[in-house]
Amino acid sequence: MLRFLLIGILIGSTFALGLWAYKINYDSRAADQRVKELEKSILSANKQFKILNAEWAHLNRPDRLRKLAEYYFSELRLTPINPDDFISFSDVYWGQFSESESKALVDKRLTGITHE
Amino acid sequence: MNSSNKVKLFTEHPRTRSRLILFSLMVLIGFSLISGKIAFLASKENKKNISYTEREVIHSRLNISDRNGNILATNLEGASAYIRPDEIQKKSLIAQRLKGIFPDLNEAVLLNKLNDGRKFFWLKSIVSPRQEKALFDLGQPGIYFGKREYRFYPHGTLASHVIGYTKVNEFDVNYAEISGISGVERAFENKLAIKNSSKLMNNSIHLSLDLPVQAEVENVLKEWQKRMGAKAGGVVIMNIHNGEIVALASSPDFNANKGRGELGKDKDSSIYFNRVVQGVYEMGSTFKIFSVAQGLEKDLFTLDSLIDTRAFRINSKNIEDKYKFNRESSIYEIIVRSSNVGSARLALMVGEKGLKEIFSKLGLLEPVRLELREANTTRPILPKNWRDITLATVSYGYGMSVSLLHLAKAYAILGNGGFDIEPTILKKNHNNSQSGSRVLKKTTSDEILKLLEAVVTDKRGTARILRSKYYRIGGKTGTAEKVSSEIRGYQKDKVVANFVGLFPLQEPMFVIAAFLDEPENNLLQEPCRYASCTVVPMVKKLIERTGPLMNVTPDHQALMFYRGS
């Protein structure tokens, strides 16, 4: 009786272990496949990203933008940046604020913004 | 069940025991097989399980971008097309159809290639997506496509001389290895060419160039080159504190997207010549400031010292001026009105040793150590012997040839307070750190800046057109006659006109150097070839256009100077 029980348990556990190993094997193959697919899609996304970046750069080339600005001038009124576009701090109307107050206000807003 | 029973079980049945041993042995073998396999897989993992991306992209190249990350050069994937003729049946029909897709192909040659029994030939090393589709739609067996990376310059001709160009080194049906031949593409070949790119996919080399500034500079340069009928021209704008080159343009330029052969057919190969970096010219009066600087450095004179400016002879050569000068002129006047005689006298005062000393401090005796190979191989042309006449002529820019970049570097050192700098094409992290050692006194630099500003603000100054209501600018003009290739001596009607300036003078930040080769301004009452009427107006436009782009705020003092005169 005991012998059958023992053999039964052993056969049962071997079978279970085999099943478990098979499942792990199967899962790991599937995972490997998925990784490959993901990497492939990352690669193609990267490629697309590169192409789109290049296209974006190509569309934003300065001579094209210049032509577009001229073409749509009547609607957009875009002109090249000019030294006249800079005004000094004191030229701005600050309403009820005094100059030192307004300076503090602007400084507060500008913290964190860096200029190249 | 108690323990005595258990013992009995094992001892009284020997067969059970041997069976058990056999069974456990088999289990042991089974597990050792499994663990062996695991160990085998684990050891093999390095070779087999390299990620897909790393296996696929072998030959790639980093992007080149400007200081703000705008892409200047990138790699794109295209396709090459090749043919296996023995798989094609109706050869003449196919040849005809291929001609329809690629109008530049010769049908007879193509047919010959299809028929002469070869197994394989290249149809096109790179086909456009549209052509690829057309080929595909033929549905013809025997036409194959290979993956091919190619270099793409989204801005076409922009900064072409700095970026340089590439060529395909070796290629097969599935890859092409690209290597740089000139400019940044060559200088940083080792950094750009990477074998495994998956992790570096979006990395790029950041240049110090500023795309909008560069575009504006090229735009203005080309416009003025046309207006002045000049053969060529060049401009460089550089940060005088850290040596970053913000814009460098040489005209005529080229579009690196087109193949070199394709370009070479109708245009002169000199379009590949970087005139700012590789071209050495006699620079004329822009050299005058150097002997003054050395004199100030050694306390030989002050700006008010009076110098004899009557024409004189040395080594049986006459030294004279185009304009009339008084018997004696101050150094201020010599520079502002650009007197050759005065400059020659100053050079003789400074002497050979002094002149060589200042030239070597300003880096005019050796190649500029810019990263580009073109710069490292460009040596200034120096006089063979330094007689008195040589000293005199070199002091006003004849008998010694340097590149525009040399000149920009020299003026940068004069203007930044006297610190040595190394021009660089790469973006620096610390924006305005003064890295070089001091080579000139601060006072010398200050006096020189005063002189240079006077050239612009003085009513008699050669660059008075440059006076701007926005910026305080200082600089020096130079016009040098070109050496004739046919007759001995100089040609009166062919000049190189140049200008080197510093701005904004309340806190000097940038040096701008510009030149035009054989300019002639015919828009005035009589034709004028001097720098004052050719290059200077161009520089004015350049500064007023690029200044705002580089965040140089207009100066109120400049307006006062402007109105005050």
How many separate structural domains of chain A? Answer: 1
Instruction: Tell me the distance between the termini of chain B.
Output: 121 Å
Strand content of chain A: under 5%
Oligomer: heterodimer
Text of the CATH class of the largest domain in chain B = Alpha Beta
Strand content of chain B: 15-25%
Shape of chain A: elongated
Largest interface: A-B, 37 and 45 residues
- Rg from Cα of chain A: 35 Å
Distance between the termini of chain A: 87 Å
| Number of self-contained structural domains of chain B | 2
Structural class of chain B: alpha+beta
How many strands, what sense, and barrel or not for the largest sheet of chain B?
5 strands, mixed
- Count of helical stretches of chain A: 4
Please name the CATH architecture of the largest domain in chain B. 3-Layer(aba) Sandwich
Mean pLDDT of chain A: 85
C-alpha-based Rg of chain B, rounded: 35 Å
Estimate the mean pLDDT confidence of chain B.
86
Low-confidence stretches of chain A: none
CATH superfamily name of the largest domain in chain B? DD-peptidase/beta-lactamase superfamily
Choose one word for the global shape of chain B: elongated
Overview of this structure, please?
The complex is a heterodimer of chains A (116) and B (565). The model of chain A has no long low-confidence stretch (mean pLDDT 85). Chain A has 4 helices and no strands. Chain A has one domain. Chain B has 565 residues and is α+β, with helices and mostly antiparallel strands. Chain B has 2 domains: 136 residues, Penicillin-binding protein 2a (Domain 2); 353 residues, Beta-lactamase (3-Layer(aba) Sandwich), CATH 3.40.710.10. Chain B is 39% helix and 21% strand. In chain B, strands 2, 3, 4, 5 and 9 form a 5-stranded mixed β-sheet that branches. In chain B, strands 11-10-20-19-18 form a 5-stranded antiparallel β-sheet, with helices on both faces. In chain B, β19 and β20 form a beta hairpin. In chain B, α12 crosses α14, α12 runs antiparallel to α18 and α14 crosses α16. Chain B is elongated and about 130 Å long.
